[in-house]
Amino acid sequence: MKACVFHGVRDVRLEQVQEPQIGPGDLLVQVGAAGLCHSDIRVYLGEKKAKLGVIPGHETAGTVVVVGSDVNDFQVGDKAVICPILACGRCYFCRRGLRNRCPERTTLGYEENGGLAQYMLVPAQLLELGHVFKASVEMPMELASLTEPSACVLNSLETCEMEAGSSLAVIGAGPMGLLHIMLARSIGVARIIAVEPMEERRAFAKRFGATSVLDPQGDSLEETVMDVTNGLGADAVVVSTGRTEAADLAFGLVRKQGFVNLFGGFPPNTHMDFDPNIVHYNEIRLTGTQNATPEQYRRALNLLSVNPQMTKINTHRFSIDDSPSAYTVRLGAEGLKSVVLFPDAA
Ligand SMILES: [Zn+2]
Ligand SMILES: [Zn+2]
Q1: Cα(345) to centroid of ligand 1, in Å?
Q2: pLDDT per residue over 271-298, tens digit each?
Q3: For residue 150, how many other CB atoms are within 10 A of its CB?
Protein backbone atom coordinates (compact mmCIF):
# COMPACT_ATOMS: atom_id res chain seq x y z
CA MET A 1 0.00 0.00 0.00
CA LYS A 2 1.00 3.62 -0.36
CA ALA A 3 1.99 5.44 2.81
CA CYS A 4 3.62 8.68 3.83
CA VAL A 5 6.57 7.84 6.11
CA PHE A 6 8.42 10.11 8.54
CA HIS A 7 12.21 9.71 8.29
CA GLY A 8 13.47 12.71 10.24
CA VAL A 9 13.45 16.48 10.33
CA ARG A 10 12.09 17.84 7.04
CA ASP A 11 12.04 14.34 5.60
CA VAL A 12 8.70 12.64 4.83
CA ARG A 13 8.43 10.33 1.82
CA LEU A 14 5.72 8.56 -0.11
CA GLU A 15 6.56 4.85 -0.02
CA GLN A 16 5.19 1.46 -0.88
CA VAL A 17 4.90 -0.48 2.40
CA GLN A 18 3.38 -3.79 3.57
CA GLU A 19 -0.32 -3.71 4.38
CA PRO A 20 -0.77 -4.17 8.14
CA GLN A 21 -1.56 -7.70 9.37
CA ILE A 22 -4.37 -7.73 11.89
CA GLY A 23 -4.73 -9.89 14.99
CA PRO A 24 -8.00 -11.29 16.39
CA GLY A 25 -8.72 -8.14 18.45
CA ASP A 26 -7.87 -5.57 15.76
CA LEU A 27 -9.58 -3.80 12.88
CA LEU A 28 -8.25 -2.87 9.49
CA VAL A 29 -9.53 0.48 8.28
CA GLN A 30 -9.35 1.77 4.74
CA VAL A 31 -8.52 5.42 5.31
CA GLY A 32 -10.97 7.94 3.87
CA ALA A 33 -9.49 11.19 5.15
CA ALA A 34 -6.49 12.11 7.28
CA GLY A 35 -5.96 15.68 8.39
CA LEU A 36 -2.60 17.25 9.06
CA CYS A 37 -2.28 19.55 12.00
CA HIS A 38 0.20 22.03 13.35
CA SER A 39 1.69 19.40 15.66
CA ASP A 40 2.56 17.31 12.58
CA ILE A 41 4.35 20.35 11.19
CA ARG A 42 6.14 20.76 14.52
CA VAL A 43 7.37 17.16 14.21
CA TYR A 44 8.46 17.86 10.65
CA LEU A 45 10.42 20.89 11.87
CA GLY A 46 12.01 18.95 14.74
CA GLU A 47 10.18 20.85 17.52
CA LYS A 48 8.25 17.77 18.61
CA LYS A 49 9.25 14.09 18.68
CA ALA A 50 7.95 11.17 16.64
CA LYS A 51 9.41 7.74 15.99
CA LEU A 52 11.57 7.47 12.87
CA GLY A 53 9.85 5.35 10.24
CA VAL A 54 6.36 5.97 11.62
CA ILE A 55 3.37 6.72 9.40
CA PRO A 56 2.05 10.09 10.65
CA GLY A 57 -1.62 11.10 10.84
CA HIS A 58 -3.69 11.29 14.02
CA GLU A 59 -6.84 12.87 12.56
CA THR A 60 -8.28 9.88 10.78
CA ALA A 61 -11.62 8.60 9.52
CA GLY A 62 -12.11 5.54 7.36
CA THR A 63 -14.12 2.45 6.52
CA VAL A 64 -13.73 -0.82 8.37
CA VAL A 65 -12.63 -3.44 5.83
CA VAL A 66 -11.46 -6.35 8.02
CA VAL A 67 -12.76 -7.23 11.48
CA GLY A 68 -10.70 -9.42 13.81
CA SER A 69 -12.44 -12.64 14.91
CA ASP A 70 -12.72 -11.46 18.53
CA VAL A 71 -14.26 -8.05 17.70
CA ASN A 72 -18.02 -7.80 18.24
CA ASP A 73 -18.76 -4.07 18.11
CA PHE A 74 -17.72 -3.34 14.52
CA GLN A 75 -18.71 -4.67 11.14
CA VAL A 76 -17.23 -4.40 7.69
CA GLY A 77 -18.51 -1.15 6.15
CA ASP A 78 -18.74 0.83 9.40
CA LYS A 79 -17.41 4.36 9.24
CA ALA A 80 -14.78 4.62 11.98
CA VAL A 81 -13.39 7.77 13.58
CA ILE A 82 -10.29 7.29 15.66
CA CYS A 83 -9.18 8.87 18.91
CA PRO A 84 -5.46 8.13 18.50
CA ILE A 85 -4.54 7.92 22.20
CA LEU A 86 -3.23 4.54 23.38
CA ALA A 87 -3.53 4.84 27.16
CA CYS A 88 -2.90 2.33 29.95
CA GLY A 89 -6.53 2.34 31.10
CA ARG A 90 -5.56 1.78 34.75
CA CYS A 91 -3.73 4.83 36.11
CA TYR A 92 -5.12 7.71 38.18
CA PHE A 93 -5.96 9.72 35.04
CA CYS A 94 -7.30 6.84 32.96
CA ARG A 95 -9.68 5.81 35.75
CA ARG A 96 -11.12 9.32 35.61
CA GLY A 97 -11.56 9.26 31.85
CA LEU A 98 -8.61 11.62 31.33
CA ARG A 99 -6.79 9.35 28.90
CA ASN A 100 -5.09 12.39 27.35
CA ARG A 101 -3.14 12.80 30.60
CA CYS A 102 -2.10 9.13 31.00
CA PRO A 103 1.65 9.17 31.66
CA GLU A 104 2.07 5.95 29.68
CA ARG A 105 0.09 7.02 26.64
CA THR A 106 1.41 6.78 23.14
CA THR A 107 -0.29 8.24 20.11
CA LEU A 108 -1.03 6.84 16.68
CA GLY A 109 0.79 8.97 14.16
CA TYR A 110 3.73 9.65 16.52
CA GLU A 111 4.85 6.42 18.20
CA GLU A 112 2.58 4.02 16.28
CA ASN A 113 1.46 4.14 12.66
CA GLY A 114 -1.29 6.62 11.89
CA GLY A 115 -3.59 7.46 9.03
CA LEU A 116 -1.45 8.84 6.21
CA ALA A 117 -1.69 5.54 4.35
CA GLN A 118 -4.26 3.63 2.33
CA TYR A 119 -4.88 1.25 5.25
CA MET A 120 -4.50 1.61 8.97
CA LEU A 121 -4.35 -0.95 11.74
CA VAL A 122 -6.65 -0.15 14.65
CA PRO A 123 -5.09 -2.09 17.53
CA ALA A 124 -7.16 -4.09 20.03
CA GLN A 125 -5.99 -1.80 22.85
CA LEU A 126 -7.64 1.19 21.17
CA LEU A 127 -10.92 -0.71 20.77
CA GLU A 128 -10.84 -1.90 24.39
CA LEU A 129 -10.39 1.70 25.54
CA GLY A 130 -13.46 2.70 23.51
CA HIS A 131 -11.36 5.07 21.38
CA VAL A 132 -12.99 4.16 18.08
CA PHE A 133 -16.26 5.88 17.23
CA LYS A 134 -18.83 5.13 14.57
CA ALA A 135 -19.92 7.96 12.32
CA SER A 136 -23.13 7.79 10.31
CA VAL A 137 -22.73 6.40 6.82
CA GLU A 138 -23.85 9.74 5.31
CA MET A 139 -21.20 11.77 7.13
CA PRO A 140 -18.48 12.81 4.68
CA MET A 141 -15.05 11.38 5.55
CA GLU A 142 -13.48 14.81 5.41
CA LEU A 143 -15.93 16.13 8.02
CA ALA A 144 -15.42 13.08 10.23
CA SER A 145 -11.62 13.53 10.09
CA LEU A 146 -12.06 16.87 11.90
CA THR A 147 -13.13 15.03 15.07
CA GLU A 148 -9.67 15.03 16.68
CA PRO A 149 -8.95 18.77 16.26
CA SER A 150 -12.56 19.62 17.18
CA ALA A 151 -12.30 17.50 20.33
CA CYS A 152 -9.14 19.40 21.31
CA VAL A 153 -11.04 22.65 20.85
CA LEU A 154 -14.05 21.36 22.78
CA ASN A 155 -11.72 20.47 25.67
CA SER A 156 -10.40 24.04 25.56
CA LEU A 157 -13.88 25.61 25.51
CA GLU A 158 -15.17 23.35 28.28
CA THR A 159 -12.11 23.88 30.49
CA CYS A 160 -12.79 27.62 30.09
CA GLU A 161 -16.42 26.97 31.14
CA MET A 162 -17.79 28.48 27.93
CA GLU A 163 -21.57 28.34 27.65
CA ALA A 164 -24.40 30.00 25.74
CA GLY A 165 -24.02 33.76 26.15
CA SER A 166 -20.34 33.71 27.22
CA SER A 167 -17.64 35.92 25.77
CA LEU A 168 -14.41 34.55 24.34
CA ALA A 169 -11.28 36.13 22.91
CA VAL A 170 -9.08 33.98 20.69
CA ILE A 171 -5.53 35.15 20.10
CA GLY A 172 -4.25 33.63 16.88
CA ALA A 173 -6.69 32.80 14.07
CA GLY A 174 -4.77 29.91 12.55
CA PRO A 175 -6.70 26.68 11.89
CA MET A 176 -7.11 25.84 15.60
CA GLY A 177 -8.03 29.40 16.55
CA LEU A 178 -10.62 29.39 13.76
CA LEU A 179 -12.00 26.03 14.93
CA HIS A 180 -12.45 27.66 18.35
CA ILE A 181 -14.49 30.40 16.67
CA MET A 182 -16.67 27.93 14.74
CA LEU A 183 -17.32 25.62 17.69
CA ALA A 184 -17.85 28.51 20.14
CA ARG A 185 -20.44 29.82 17.70
CA SER A 186 -22.14 26.44 17.49
CA ILE A 187 -22.49 26.15 21.29
CA GLY A 188 -23.93 29.66 21.61
CA VAL A 189 -20.98 31.76 22.80
CA ALA A 190 -22.26 35.29 22.20
CA ARG A 191 -19.16 37.47 21.87
CA ILE A 192 -16.23 36.04 19.97
CA ILE A 193 -13.26 38.34 19.55
CA ALA A 194 -10.48 37.24 17.21
CA VAL A 195 -7.01 38.80 17.48
CA GLU A 196 -4.83 38.04 14.49
CA PRO A 197 -2.06 39.94 12.68
CA MET A 198 -2.59 38.34 9.23
CA GLU A 199 -5.22 39.97 7.07
CA GLU A 200 -6.21 36.74 5.30
CA ARG A 201 -6.86 35.02 8.62
CA ARG A 202 -8.81 37.97 9.99
CA ALA A 203 -11.09 37.61 6.98
CA PHE A 204 -11.57 33.90 7.75
CA ALA A 205 -12.30 34.75 11.40
CA LYS A 206 -15.05 37.12 10.33
CA ARG A 207 -16.50 34.59 7.88
CA PHE A 208 -16.45 31.79 10.49
CA GLY A 209 -18.38 33.72 13.12
CA ALA A 210 -16.15 36.11 15.08
CA THR A 211 -18.17 39.12 16.24
CA SER A 212 -15.10 41.39 16.49
CA VAL A 213 -11.91 40.94 14.52
CA LEU A 214 -8.81 42.83 15.66
CA ASP A 215 -5.31 43.42 14.35
CA PRO A 216 -2.86 43.43 17.29
CA GLN A 217 -0.60 45.78 15.35
CA GLY A 218 -3.13 48.51 14.71
CA ASP A 219 -6.23 48.17 16.87
CA SER A 220 -6.59 49.07 20.54
CA LEU A 221 -7.34 45.58 21.81
CA GLU A 222 -8.11 46.21 25.47
CA GLU A 223 -10.43 49.09 24.67
CA THR A 224 -12.41 47.08 22.14
CA VAL A 225 -12.67 43.99 24.32
CA MET A 226 -13.85 46.07 27.30
CA ASP A 227 -16.29 47.80 24.99
CA VAL A 228 -18.01 44.63 23.79
CA THR A 229 -18.02 42.95 27.24
CA ASN A 230 -19.65 45.78 29.24
CA GLY A 231 -16.31 46.80 30.69
CA LEU A 232 -15.64 43.36 32.21
CA GLY A 233 -13.15 41.75 29.87
CA ALA A 234 -13.66 38.41 28.15
CA ASP A 235 -14.86 35.43 30.20
CA ALA A 236 -12.01 33.49 28.63
CA VAL A 237 -9.00 34.17 26.45
CA VAL A 238 -7.56 31.30 24.46
CA VAL A 239 -3.98 31.67 23.30
CA SER A 240 -3.86 29.67 20.09
CA THR A 241 -0.30 30.44 19.06
CA GLY A 242 3.06 29.40 20.46
CA ARG A 243 4.13 32.99 21.07
CA THR A 244 4.71 34.41 24.54
CA GLU A 245 3.74 37.96 23.46
CA ALA A 246 0.26 36.57 22.78
CA ALA A 247 0.10 34.94 26.20
CA ASP A 248 1.11 38.24 27.77
CA LEU A 249 -1.61 40.04 25.84
CA ALA A 250 -4.23 37.64 27.23
CA PHE A 251 -3.92 39.03 30.78
CA GLY A 252 -5.04 42.42 29.53
CA LEU A 253 -8.17 41.06 27.82
CA VAL A 254 -9.56 38.63 30.39
CA ARG A 255 -12.07 39.58 33.07
CA LYS A 256 -11.38 39.05 36.75
CA GLN A 257 -11.78 35.35 37.60
CA GLY A 258 -11.78 34.59 33.88
CA PHE A 259 -9.75 31.88 32.18
CA VAL A 260 -6.55 32.21 30.20
CA ASN A 261 -5.93 28.95 28.34
CA LEU A 262 -2.53 28.32 26.79
CA PHE A 263 -3.88 26.09 24.03
CA GLY A 264 -1.00 26.11 21.56
CA GLY A 265 2.31 24.37 22.29
CA PHE A 266 5.39 26.59 22.63
CA PRO A 267 8.81 25.89 21.11
CA PRO A 268 11.11 23.97 23.52
CA ASN A 269 12.89 26.13 26.15
CA THR A 270 10.43 29.00 25.91
CA HIS A 271 10.28 31.16 29.02
CA MET A 272 7.75 33.77 29.86
CA ASP A 273 7.84 36.82 32.12
CA PHE A 274 4.65 38.13 33.62
CA ASP A 275 3.55 39.98 36.71
CA PRO A 276 2.16 37.27 39.02
CA ASN A 277 0.08 39.90 40.80
CA ILE A 278 -2.13 40.10 37.72
CA VAL A 279 -3.05 36.46 38.28
CA HIS A 280 -3.23 36.83 42.06
CA TYR A 281 -5.31 40.00 42.47
CA ASN A 282 -7.61 39.29 39.56
CA GLU A 283 -7.95 35.61 40.43
CA ILE A 284 -7.20 34.71 36.82
CA ARG A 285 -7.48 31.01 36.15
CA LEU A 286 -4.40 30.29 34.07
CA THR A 287 -4.58 26.86 32.49
CA GLY A 288 -3.46 24.75 29.56
CA THR A 289 -5.29 22.11 27.55
CA GLN A 290 -3.88 19.46 25.27
CA ASN A 291 -5.83 16.87 23.31
CA ALA A 292 -9.15 15.73 24.77
CA THR A 293 -10.97 12.96 26.60
CA PRO A 294 -12.76 10.20 24.65
CA GLU A 295 -16.06 11.64 25.87
CA GLN A 296 -15.14 14.95 24.23
CA TYR A 297 -14.28 13.09 21.02
CA ARG A 298 -17.72 11.53 21.03
CA ARG A 299 -19.45 14.88 21.46
CA ALA A 300 -17.15 16.64 18.96
CA LEU A 301 -18.20 14.06 16.37
CA ASN A 302 -21.86 14.83 17.17
CA LEU A 303 -21.28 18.58 16.85
CA LEU A 304 -19.52 18.12 13.51
CA SER A 305 -22.33 15.98 12.13
CA VAL A 306 -24.69 18.98 12.37
CA ASN A 307 -22.08 21.57 11.31
CA PRO A 308 -20.98 20.37 7.85
CA GLN A 309 -19.68 23.85 7.02
CA MET A 310 -16.71 23.14 9.31
CA THR A 311 -14.81 21.49 6.46
CA LYS A 312 -14.16 25.05 5.25
CA ILE A 313 -11.19 24.92 7.62
CA ASN A 314 -9.51 22.68 5.03
CA THR A 315 -8.15 24.91 2.28
CA HIS A 316 -5.68 22.37 0.86
CA ARG A 317 -6.66 18.88 -0.25
CA PHE A 318 -4.12 16.28 -1.33
CA SER A 319 -4.06 12.70 -2.57
CA ILE A 320 -1.76 10.17 -0.88
CA ASP A 321 0.55 10.48 -3.91
CA ASP A 322 1.32 14.09 -3.11
CA SER A 323 0.98 13.84 0.68
CA PRO A 324 4.57 15.08 1.32
CA SER A 325 3.48 18.39 -0.23
CA ALA A 326 0.77 18.60 2.43
CA TYR A 327 3.69 19.34 4.78
CA THR A 328 5.63 21.79 2.67
CA VAL A 329 2.56 23.85 1.81
CA ARG A 330 1.91 24.37 5.54
CA LEU A 331 5.36 25.90 6.04
CA GLY A 332 4.11 29.03 4.38
CA ALA A 333 1.29 30.63 6.36
CA GLU A 334 -0.97 30.81 3.31
CA GLY A 335 -4.34 29.05 3.62
CA LEU A 336 -5.49 27.03 6.63
CA LYS A 337 -5.52 23.28 7.09
CA SER A 338 -4.33 20.41 4.88
CA VAL A 339 -6.14 17.12 4.50
CA VAL A 340 -5.23 13.98 2.57
CA LEU A 341 -8.28 12.42 0.93
CA PHE A 342 -8.69 8.87 -0.39
CA PRO A 343 -11.62 8.99 -2.81
CA ASP A 344 -11.73 5.16 -3.08
CA ALA A 345 -12.76 4.81 0.56
CA ALA A 346 -15.19 7.74 0.77
ZN1 LIG B 1 -4.18 17.31 15.53
ZN1 LIG C 1 -3.23 5.62 32.12
Answers
A1: 21
A2: 998 899 999 999 999 999 999 999 999 9
A3: 29
